[in-house]
């Protein structure tokens, strides 16, 4: 039966009637088989991805528990008031920093050895992807404990002086990078200056929105009316305040989107060797962080 079915599909005839199928039907059946095959492959890949994610999550949870027992989180020893979301981010960020240091060493070695542009581009693209992973890590953290990103407990005291909505200001970074990328063409200079200006405008808009949110939050907490049931009044105000505070997550995610877009735009504007120097310059920030922490 199995051999007969295979022969029928190959010849384009049906097992019941033996009549040859028209080319359109044969083509449609072939397309259906191919679609089913791809669907099975996608399902298999999805299951493998889920299994991999479960293993990574289990490993991260073990790291969190180990770090907590050793009092490694910023802000205290065992029993410190650290949420699980903040703890997960701290562990993930520490891993990211370690990996980032290795990637910067690889990138610097590739530049010094005058690696061909094609090989260097693969390393540069991988470095950009690595930064994207940090932004994704911060999205998860923002949704679980946005205050941890805002207060900068995961950064050094020096970094906190320049912290803006859980990270760096894109316009400040661009201003710092520009002198280190010479020689630039006139078109590149114009592109970077336009990017810096648009980033600054977006930063100002987000800052104004955040200020309005803070004011609205303060007004909500101060605007409760005096009623007989004071507890109910307080709970109502807190519910309104928490609802508005949830908007803080959106501001941090938008700020990170702005940072991510700036990196991708620079990657497009620069040549591959300029982009490599750009990422090395950005990497100096995390190298300085490591020095401060020592």
Automatic annotation (TrEMBL):
Residues 1-21 are annotated as: Disordered. Keywords: Coiled coil, DNA-binding, Nucleus, Transcription, Transcription regulation. The keyword Ion transport does not apply. It is found in: Nucleus. Residues 43-70 form a coiled coil. It comes from the Eukaryota. GO terms for cellular component: nucleus. Residues 22-66 form the BZIP domain. SMART domains: BRLZ. One of its GO terms (molecular function) is DNA-binding transcription factor activity. SUPFAM superfamilies: Leucine zipper domain. It holds the Pfam family DOG1. GO terms for biological process: DNA-templated transcription. The keyword Coiled coil applies. PROSITE patterns: BZIP, BZIP_BASIC, DOG1. Residues 86-294 form the DOG1 domain. Belongs to the bZIP family. This is DOG1 domain-containing protein.
């Amino acid at each position: 039966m199995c051999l007969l079915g295979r022969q029928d599909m190959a010849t384009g005839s049906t097992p019941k009637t033996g009549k040859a199928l028209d080319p359109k039907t044969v083509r449609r059946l072939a397309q259906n088989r191919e679609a089913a095959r791809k669907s099975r492959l996608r399902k298999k890949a999805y299951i493998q991805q889920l299994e991999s994610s479960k293993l990574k999550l289990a490993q991260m949870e073990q790291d969190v528990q180990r770090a907590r027992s050793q009092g490694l989180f910023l802000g205290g020893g065992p029993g410190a008031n650290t949420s699980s979301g903040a703890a997960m981010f701290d562990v993930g960020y520490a891993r990211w920093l370690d990996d980032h240091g290795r990637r910067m060493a690889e990138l610097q070695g590739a530049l010094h050895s005058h690696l061909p542009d094609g090989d260097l581009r693969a390393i540069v693209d991988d470095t950009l992807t690595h930064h994207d992973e940090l932004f994704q890590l911060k999205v998860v953290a923002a949704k679980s404990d946005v205050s941890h990103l805002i207060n900068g407990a995961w950064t050094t005291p020096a970094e906190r002086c320049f912290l803006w909505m859980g990270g760096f200001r894109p316009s400040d970074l661009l201003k710092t990078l520009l002198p280190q990328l010479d020689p630039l063409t006139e078109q590149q200079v114009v592109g970077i200056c336009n990017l810096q200006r648009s980033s600054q405008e977006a930063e100002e808009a987000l800052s104004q929105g955040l200020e309005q949110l803070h004011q609205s939050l303060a007004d909500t907490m101060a605007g409760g009316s005096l009623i007989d049931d004071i507890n109910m009044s307080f709970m109502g105000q807190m519910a309104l305040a928490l609802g508005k505070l949830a908007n803080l997550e959106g501001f941090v995610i938008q700020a990170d989107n702005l940072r991510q877009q700036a990196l991708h735009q620079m990657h497009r504007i620069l040549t591959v060797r300029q982009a490599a120097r750009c990422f090395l310059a950005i990497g100096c920030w995390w190298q300085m962080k490591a020095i401060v922490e020592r």
